[in-house]
Write a structure and sequence with these properties.
Layout: H1 4-17, E1 29-38, E2 45-46, H2 49-55, E3 58-61, E4 66-71, E5 74-84, E6 87-93, E7 99-109, E8 113-117, E9 125-130
Antiparallel strand pairs: 1-2, 1-3, 1-9, 3-4, 4-5, 5-6, 6-7, 7-8, 8-9
Length: about 130
């Protein structure tokens, strides 16, 4: 009995900490950026609300698994994505035709909000709402 209670508690904590994998259909659409931070920069930085209003950035996921990032009314980045559990693997097509792949780590996804980040010293965290 003394070993059963800790096992039950550990099992409960493990199950509540696990979030289900993201489904692509939950991403499809346009997500307007509300907040953009670079917490690992030296010093940490945040894009001002006035710049966000002026530049009107957003990320758009399509049913053909393409991903477009807009900033200032122009495409800043484009490519394709695939889901890897709770992360979005993004394969960006660069101007010279080459590609690079990196993950967006998703910390929150609901019907109306999305929080994702990249890692490293130039990594950023974006909070967006679905339009």
């Amino acid at each position: 009995m003394s070993k059963t209670i800790p096992a039950i508690i550990l099992s409960f904590l493990f199950l509540t900490a696990c979030k289900p994998a993201i489904k692509p259909q939950n991403l499809y659409g346009k997500w307007k950026y509300l907040k953009v931070e670079t917490p690992n920069a030296n010093p940490p930085d945040t894009v001002s609300s006035s710049e966000l209003k002026e530049q009107a950035p957003y990320i758009q996921f399509t049913t053909k698994d393409s991903l477009l990032i807009y900033w200032g009314g122009q495409v800043l980045s484009h490519g394709v994505f695939r889901i890897d559990g709770r992360n979005i693997q993004y394969k960006e097509t660069l101007a010279d035709g080459k590609t690079r792949e990196f993950p967006f780590y998703v910390s929150e996804l609901t019907n109306k909000s999305l929080v994702f980040s990249t890692r490293g010293s130039d990594g950023s965290e974006v909070t967006a709402v679905k339009e």
